[in-house]
Design brief:
alpha/beta, Cobalt-precorrin-4 Transmethylase, domain 1, Methyltransferase, Cobalt-precorrin-4 Transmethylase, Domain 2, five-stranded parallel sheet, five-stranded mixed sheet, 10 strands, 28% helix, 19% strand
Length: 251
């Protein structure tokens, strides 16, 4: 029977947990969690669970990935119950899951992966804006906003600017000014709608609506310390493609 699980906790709202992840939370013997996992979600853990914070946050000192892998392997080898590696969002989207799966594989430890709702999808629901729309956006691009060593990633900004669709930029609050400048220099219309969402799905969620060229300045002035997701594209304008007025048949 599998005892080790890599699971996504979603964007922070406990109601958005999958039933399977909730069950794992309630029964796990050891829980190793990221800093993005909300306190409300951790409160659902069983009373006897050992809870270990292995959080990694951009720009902050935290456990190294090697240390996290070692803790996970140690817990898997020494625990008799379920070991839950709980990540924010979905473990397979910017969740560093590959390194942890390789570490478990190297020790012959079986595991399962349980998905979670990633921030971009939760943001679309919160904003009531579809990331894909006919004749407006036929693709969604998930991109990292900062490089592993810090700074702006080496994306092909020409391709991103010309590909159309919606850009979902993760971990990009600190680099948005340069990131947006690269996109605009590569051909993106400076007036392209852009939205920053802090603490997606949580009670303290904050939203800034602007354009690709103006959002970085507004973000610096208005956002707090929570995780920020950035959406850029025509689909995130105010209901791009005005809604159809349908005739309602009388019954």
């Amino acid at each position: 029977m599998t005892r080790v699980f890599l699971a996504g906790s979603g964007p922070g709202d406990p109601d958005l947990l999958t039933v399977k992840t909730l069950r794992l939370l309630q029964t796990a013997e050891v829980i190793l969690h990221d800093s993005l996992v909300s306190a409300e979600i951790l409160a659902l853990a069983g009373p006897e669970a050992t809870i270990i914070d292995v959080g990694k946050r951009c720009g902050r000192h935290s456990a190294t990935q090697d240390a996290i892998c070692s803790l996970l392997v140690q817990a898997a080898l020494t625990s008799t119950g379920i070991v839950l590696r709980l990540k924010g969002g979905d473990p397979m989207i910017f969740g560093r899951a590959t390194e942890e799966m390789l570490a478990l594989d190297a020790h012959g430890i079986a595991y399962e992966v349980t998905p979670g709702i990633t921030a971009a999808l939760a943001a679309a629901s919160s904003l009531k804006l579809s990331l894909t729309q006919r004749q407006v956006s036929r693709a969604v691009h998930f991109v990292a906003g900062h490089a592993a060593e810090g700074g702006i990633p080496g994306h092909d900004f020409v391709t991103l600017a010309q590909a159309g669709g919606t850009l979902a930029v993760y971990m990009g609050a600190q680099t948005l000014s340069g990131f947006s400048a690269h996109l605009i220099e590569a051909g993106l219309d400076p007036a392209t709608p852009a939205i920053a969402i802090e603490n997606v799905s949580r009670a303290d969620e904050r939203i800034i609506r602007s354009t690709a060229t103006r959002l970085p300045q507004l973000l610096r002035k208005q956002m707090g310390e929570g995780p920020v997701l950035i959406l850029i594209g025509e689909a995130v304008g105010e209901r791009a493609g005005a809604p159809l007025r349908l005739e309602v048949a009388s019954i």
